[in-house]
């Protein structure tokens, strides 16, 4: 509703209300981006050297005929997306409700709960995009990108980021203390990172565990990234992987909106 | 301007949280240009009322119109015209003073250039210009509160809502905040504030409601309320510890009313000095005697039997 107020002054509201919310996070990020950029490049560099070159030397036959370094890097890119997405959706969201109370400040402005959530999620996805792009550039330097399809990695990791960040937003909004967030890292992020096909193919897992890997959003992200950088077809038909991730993203967003509303509109 | 239509109009307004009723059917009208107060102790339902008026908390029952609009349907449009200074601040301590204002102005769709200019004016108004580029984190409580007030003004609001604007501030910081709020009031800004400080209510409010247990127990101008519910003067008598009850009986009949507090006896009288003479005439020697004018604190005590600040 625009127009004028009772005193005849124009009522101003942002055209896209989530935009200034994203603007807030960018203003905050501006304070730390320099050190952030440094680690964004350094971390992939060290992991590529450590896992690819170091561990890779012991995996002489490669994986399915592919050099271990070429095989593991797309997995590491997807797992970086997971780490950043979870890190940015746990403590910052918890803080928005309990410490900085930034959400209640935003709520007093003409923003709706959906705008507050969208703006913050957009920032998380931007962070995911930036760190994985940095990783992709390092990978390009090491010559491990074997196909032009590598350009599909950024949109894939953004989808993976949303599939992970949205449900984690919901979790961070409902946990009673920040200690509960460590459970998420121990029982979701860590096992996913280890067993969802980042470092070795899930086919090496016992059948039962393999099912769990298929359920994790990370495995789908890993396989899509790997298919892209190697220029091969993913294990499932492409729409299958994409729809599975989109399902996590959609359910996650609906859940997050629901719990954000329940927390803020009381 | 608005004619007779009140900016805030509430009838039978109720807020429940599960089984607990925080606001229990209140009627309120706030007119343009008024400084209106909700006075009451902690837990009286003031903050819950403010959150409903601020369109972030839907009423459980009753009628509420802000600027003539329905907060549930037009919440965002109403909030575009409100300025809110919450009890617990939600400033970003990592951003600078100026950045906090500019970022917040952007939430209202104010162009960046205008936002910067307005931030500079408001920082001047709340006397924080010198700290504009300092982070919020090291600021004192009083400075943070002034910054929050500046933030509440960034959209040139029709109504400014202040929830306990000086709670937790030292006396000097409180006076600085009062002085700024008084200036806003003189500029004709409609102020709505909650407080449990009677001096704050007396100084700032044209009209107020006294709240207790989610209900309004009295309404009027501060002076009128005092005249209506209390006597002109009050004599405070402090007797030896644990003996207030005993002496209260001995001074009964000296005034219109006697109130016994844990540490003193209050005597409500028209003429304080005469009453003190009478107390001494009865052979009583209280450890301490104070004669003062009646305040809103007395109104609250007389209406509810309890003190505002415990």
Describe what you observe in this structure.
The complex is a heterodimer of chains A (266) and B (310). Chain A is mainly alpha-helical. Helix content of chain A is 71%, strand content 2%. Chain A has one domain (16-264). Chain A has helices spanning 18-29, 33-54, 68-89, 91-98, 102-108, 113-141, 153-174, 179-195, 207-215, 217-230, 238-264; strands at residues 3-4, 10-11. In chain A, strand 1 (3-4) and strand 2 (10-11) form a beta hairpin. In chain A, helix 1 packs across helix 6 (113-141) and helix 2 runs antiparallel to helix 3. The longest helix of chain A has 29 residues, at 113-141. With 310 residues, chain B is an alpha/beta fold. Chain B is built from eleven helices and 13 strands. In chain B, helix 3 packs across helix 4 (112-125). The longest helix of chain B has 16 residues, at 171-186. Chain B is globular. The interface between A and B is large, with 34 and 42 residues.
Keywords:
heterodimer, A: 266 residues, mainly alpha, two-stranded antiparallel sheet, 2% strand, elongated, B: 310 residues, alpha/beta, Rossmann fold, Alpha-Beta Plaits, 2 domains, six-stranded mixed beta sheet, four-stranded antiparallel beta sheet
What does the average pLDDT of chain A come to? 92
Termini separation of chain A comes to: 23 Å
* Overall number of structural domains of chain B: 2
Q: What characterizes the major β-sheet of chain A?
A: 2 strands, antiparallel
Kindly report the average pLDDT value of chain B: 93
The fold-level CATH name of the largest domain in chain B is Rossmann fold
Summarize the amount of helix of chain B as a percent range: 25-40%
**How much beta of chain A, percentage-wise?**
under 5%
Q: How many angstroms does the end-to-end distance of chain B come to? A: 42 Å
What is the rounded Rg of chain B? 22 Å
Largest interface: pair, residues per side: A-B, 34 and 42 residues
Strand-residue proportion of chain B? 25-35%
| Structural class determined from secondary elements of chain B | alpha/beta
Rg calc of chain A? 20 Å
Coarse structural class of chain A: mainly alpha
Query: What CATH architecture label of the largest domain in chain B applies?
Result: 3-Layer(aba) Sandwich
Query: Which stretches of chain A of 5+ consecutive residues score pLDDT under 50?
Result: none
């Amino acid at each position: 509703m625009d127009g004028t107020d009772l005193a005849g002054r124009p009522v101003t509201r942002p055209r896209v209300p989530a935009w200034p919310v994203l603007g807030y996070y960018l203003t905050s990020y501006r304070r730390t981006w320099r050190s952030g950029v440094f680690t964004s490049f350094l971390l992939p560099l060290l992991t590529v050297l450590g896992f690819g070159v170091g561990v890779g030397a012991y995996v002489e036959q490669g994986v399915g005929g592919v050099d271990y370094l070429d095989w593991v890097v797309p997995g590491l890119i997807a797992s970086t997306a997971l780490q950043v997405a979870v890190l940015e959706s746990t403590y910052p969201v918890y803080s928005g409700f309990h410490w900085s109370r930034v959400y209640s400040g935003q709520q007093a402005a003409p923003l709706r709960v959906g705008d507050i959530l969208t703006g913050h999620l957009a920032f998380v996805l931007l962070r995911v995009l930036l760190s994985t792009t940095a990783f992709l550039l390092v990978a390009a330097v090491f010559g491990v990108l074997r196909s032009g399809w590598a350009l599909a990695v950024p949109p894939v990791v953004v989808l993976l980021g949303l599939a992970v960040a949205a449900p984690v937003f919901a979790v961070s909004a409902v946990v009673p203390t920040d200690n509960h967030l460590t459970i998420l890292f121990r029982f979701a992020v860590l096992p996913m990172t280890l067993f969802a096909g980042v470092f070795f193919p899930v086919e090496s897992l016992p059948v039962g565990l393999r099912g769990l890997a298929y359920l994790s959003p990370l495995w789908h992200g890993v396989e899509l990234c790997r298919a892209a950088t190697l220029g091969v077809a993913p294990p499932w038909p492409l729409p299958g992987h994409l729809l599975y991730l989109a399902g996590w993203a959609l359910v996650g967003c609906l859940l997050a909106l629901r719990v954000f509303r329940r927390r803020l509109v009381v | 301007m608005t004619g007779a239509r009140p900016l805030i109009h509430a009838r039978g307004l109720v807020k429940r949280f599960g089984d607990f009723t925080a606001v229990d059917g209140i009627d309120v009208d706030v007119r343009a240009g008024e400084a209106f107060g909700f006075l009451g102790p902690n837990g009286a339902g003031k903050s819950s009322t403010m959150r409903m008026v601020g369109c972030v908390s839907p009423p459980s029952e009753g009628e509420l119109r802000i600027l003539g609009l329905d907060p549930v349907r037009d919440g965002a449009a109403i909030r575009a015209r409100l300025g809110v200074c919450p009890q617990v601040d939600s400033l970003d301590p990592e951003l600078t003073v100026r950045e906090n204002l500019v970022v917040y102005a952007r939430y209202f769709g104010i162009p960046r250039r205008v936002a910067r200019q307005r931030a500079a004016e408001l920082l001047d108004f709340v006397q924080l210009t010198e700290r504009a580029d300092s982070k919020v984190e090291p600021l004192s409580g009083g400075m943070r509160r002034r910054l929050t007030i500046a933030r509440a003004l960034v959209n040139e609001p029709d109504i400014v809502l202040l929830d306990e604007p000086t709670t937790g501030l030292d006396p000097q910081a409180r006076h600085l905040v009062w002085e700024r709020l008084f200036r806003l009031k003189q500029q004709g800004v409609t102020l709505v504030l909650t407080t449990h400080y009677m001096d704050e209510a007396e100084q700032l409010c044209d009209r107020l409601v006294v709240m207790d247990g989610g209900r309004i127990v009295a309404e009027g101008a501060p002076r009128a309320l005092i005249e209506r519910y209390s006597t002109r003067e009050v004599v405070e008598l402090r007797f030896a510890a644990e003996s207030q009850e005993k002496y209260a009986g001995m001074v009964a009949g000296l005034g219109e009313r006697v109130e016994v507090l844990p540490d003193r006896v209050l005597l409500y009288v028209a003429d304080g000095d005469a009453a003190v003479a009478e107390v001494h005439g009865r052979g009583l020697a209280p450890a301490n005697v104070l004669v003062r004018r009646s305040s809103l604190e007395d109104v609250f005590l007389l209406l509810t039997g309890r003190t505002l600040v415990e």
